[in-house]
Amino acid sequence: MAEAHQAVAFQFTVTPDGIDLRLSHEALRQIYLSGLHSWKKKFIRFKNGILTGVFPSSPTSWLVVVVGVTSAQMYTKVDPSLGLIEKINQALATTGYMTSQTQNIVSGVIFGTGLWVALFATMRYSLKMLLSYKGWMFEEHGKLSTTTRVWMGMVKLFSGRKPMLYSFQTCLPRLPVPTVKDTVRRYLESVRPLMDEQQFKRMEGLADDFAINLGPKLQWYLKLKSWWATNYVSDWWEEYIYLRGRGPIMVNSNYYAMDYLYVLPTHIQAARAGNAIHAILLYRRKLDREEIKPILLMGSTVPLCSSQWERMFNTSRIPGEETEFSLWRKGSWKLIKPDMGSCFYNCNSLTIVDTIQHVKDSRHIIVYHKGRYFKVWLYHDGRLLKPREIEQQMQIILNDESEPQAGEEKLAALTAGDRVPWANARKTYFANGRNRQSLDAVEKAAFFVTLDDTEQGYNKDDPVTSLDKYAKSLLHGKCYDRWFDKTISFIVFKNGKMGMNCEHSWADAPILGHLWEYTMATDKLELGYEEDGHCKGEPNPSIPPPSRLQWDIPEACQNVIESSLSVANALADDVDFHSFPFDNFGKGLIKKTRTSPDAFVQLALQLAHFRDKGKFCLTYEASMTRLFREGRTETVRSCTIEASEFVLAMADPKQSNENKIKLFKAAAEKHQQMYRLAMTGEGIDRHLFCLYVVSKYLGVDSPFLKEVGLISLSSSHLY
């Protein structure tokens, strides 16, 4: 009851003597501090918006230009405007409200502001043109041409001082649309090792027909989109590849991040959670303030797109409902029920799509432990909780012996199974009441935390089995103890090991990798632990304890939960996962042979697969296109003609080592060339994907694009 009284800012009772008004000063103080925190964030966002909006210039430069122009006009009697200031003066004189001196100052400020806007717009456009140059990507490592050196100097000159996370966004070039002929040619080259002569001849015929007839028509629409939209791929990629999928996102889409392999700073579960959660929140604060530096390549010269950071926290994926919709077909409107098995291929199924819900701020996290959900506030007295205070909150949850409510323990299995049952259950059972309130608390939390009741991590006495269990636990757990729809499910195991399970639709793994590196480094090197393993600092008994989320889950909903869990368990049991530490050599030895470590690994995968299966397969390796605005990924098709020739030579005992090395070098260089093309917007798969989407919107069938899709989906993928 004490907590309930503190939560009320004022109370009043009616007595014979009148109204007795009692104020809770502590509640009012917390309201004041909460409002102060919100206004601080609004001010920081407003300030950062101005700084980003005028980048690569700055407000200080505006003051310099305006003062310079005004001083030149008034004191040196020099007109830097070539008569424009005098015209502005004449226009102001007609108002009759200003003195002559005031008119001179105002006209100088107006002209100076216009000159400053023109200057920073020119700088921004110049920087955008400079960043469109990608010749540096194709130069030999360590040997830069004079052209590239001059270009680097100009980029640094126009890049301003101390750019913030989003400063370069409007300066990044748009992703270019490759020509249809180039894409078709590279596609045929990529499938040549996979087909016999007859199959390849047939594919060549389909490709040539497409490049001449239908391809240019579809290309016109893509060109139009590339001029109008920020990125011609990313929105369709997010929708059709991720959000329209109706199968489980657990295993199929979500990925995970591991803890240090050999280092364990503390064995105390609550303490590890306290430090790591605090580190994650420090990162979120830096992100809100845009204090994270943009990632720069080429000696801190070339910026990468930062747009994927925007939805890292306070975000959840919301399942789309299965509904009927109207479609114009054959001269009349038809009521259609979409085919749930073909959302990617049927672009008219516009109503079945998940959405990404993002809120600007969240002041709490949700913690799951032994089937119970707890809400933990992250701020007290207008400040972020300290590590020792978060440890205190986690320990309260660990000590709580209450039982889960009916249906509560396995509730998150809904997010692990098929999307349609989850969407229907959400609409039916979580639309109002305390179920709605509790679900809102989960979906609008900063992130999700699981205090796992198992022990995981690397065991040197049993390295293979221990790592397999650790990886599978992070990938799917018990299928009901991670909220797979949250962008981040942070997991802390009973022995202090930790990890993350991440939803994939909103961003790619390198973005979470940046957060994870910061979290582990801050946890170990900056925050640290006491000698007894607890977080540094003292507990704070005045902090309100975590509160249990309340659920009212009927038996019908529990049946849906069990059904989803059955689907998820079958998927988890089907995962054949093998992980092991490899320390024979690393990238350092590979680089000594002047070979790309990435190309080395990809060629090793090709050789291993051929030795195992006796054939080649279409191979997918992810590259990034973040050199362009809102870029995400592109495919590198690693099974090249050169790679297959190297593998066949390795399988031929008659081949000399010299020839094998020669073929290896050629294959590695080809792989690097493919990677460079993918990074510079000349990849194959995203262009073909968008051409396919356009064909479906237009209602036309393409035997070539259909064949491309079938080959891609039926082939094995090596990462």
TrEMBL record:
Location(s) in or outside the cell: Mitochondrion outer membrane
Q: Where is the Choline/carnitine acyltransferase domain?
A: 175-715
Location (main, coarse): mitochondrion
Q: What is this protein called?
A: carnitine O-palmitoyltransferase
Q: What biological-process terms (Gene Ontology) are attached?
A: carnitine metabolic process; fatty acid beta-oxidation
Q: Where is the Carnitine O-palmitoyltransferase N-terminal domain?
A: 1-47
InterPro entries per the UniProt record, alphabetical: Carn_acyl_trans, CAT-like_dom_sf, Cho/carn_acyl_trans, Cho/carn_acyl_trans_2, CPT_N
Keyword terms:
Acyltransferase, Fatty acid metabolism, Lipid metabolism, Membrane, Mitochondrion, Transferase, Transmembrane, Transmembrane helix, Transport
| Matches recorded under PROSITE patterns | ACYLTRANSF_C_1, ACYLTRANSF_C_2
**Annotated catalysed reactions:** (R)-carnitine + hexadecanoyl-CoA = O-hexadecanoyl-(R)-carnitine + CoA
Which residues does the entry assign to the active site, renumbered to this chain? H504
So what EC number does this one have?
A: 2.3.1.21
Pathway involvement?
Lipid metabolism; fatty acid beta-oxidation
- In Pfam terms, one family for this protein is CPT_N
Bilayer disposition of the protein: Multi-pass membrane protein
- Looking at the UniProt entry, the stretches that span the membrane are 105-127
What Gene Ontology molecular function terms does this protein carry? Answer: carnitine O-palmitoyltransferase activity
Enzyme class per UniProt: transferase
The family this protein is said to belong to: Belongs to the carnitine/choline acetyltransferase family.
Instruction: Provide the Gene Ontology terms for cellular component.
Output: mitochondrial outer membrane
Q: Which domain of life is it from?
A: Eukaryota
